[in-house]
Amino acid sequence: MVIIKPKVSTYISLSLVLLVLMSGLILLLRDFSYKGSFGLWFYLIACSLITLVILMLLVKMMAGWRFISVGKDQITVRLPLRGMTKVYPVTEILAWEEETVLANKKEFRQVTIAFSDKNSISVSNHEHESYTELVSYLRKKAAKKMVPYKKRVP
To answer: Which residue windows are transmembrane per the record (predicted)?
Structure first.
């Protein structure tokens, strides 16, 4: 049984970025309330942009927090924040594809799996552990449902 889970290092780095953004927002609001060094338009735009970036990062982190177990001819997707677990037999895979993007002399890979109930999951090699094991399992168990290989260079 292969367990694909988010990399801890990814969530630590995203949490540090969130911490810096939140402290910047707090300092900006503190400056507005005590000194008012800049015009009101600056505070409105800066606080709105920082809040929007914080919300987008939080949504990305929460949406990506899932655990996938692969083995015994089934794929189990567990979403702890939603309290949901779905078990898909390998026969319910409609299609799957692996994309490779070369950027900055690094190779980024992502597998997208579409299921018969119109749900899909995406797993990348930089955000998840056991990526190569998942791809080899899919090549072995669902080789006929693979979409032809794509390789993009930006």
So the answer is: 12-29, 41-59
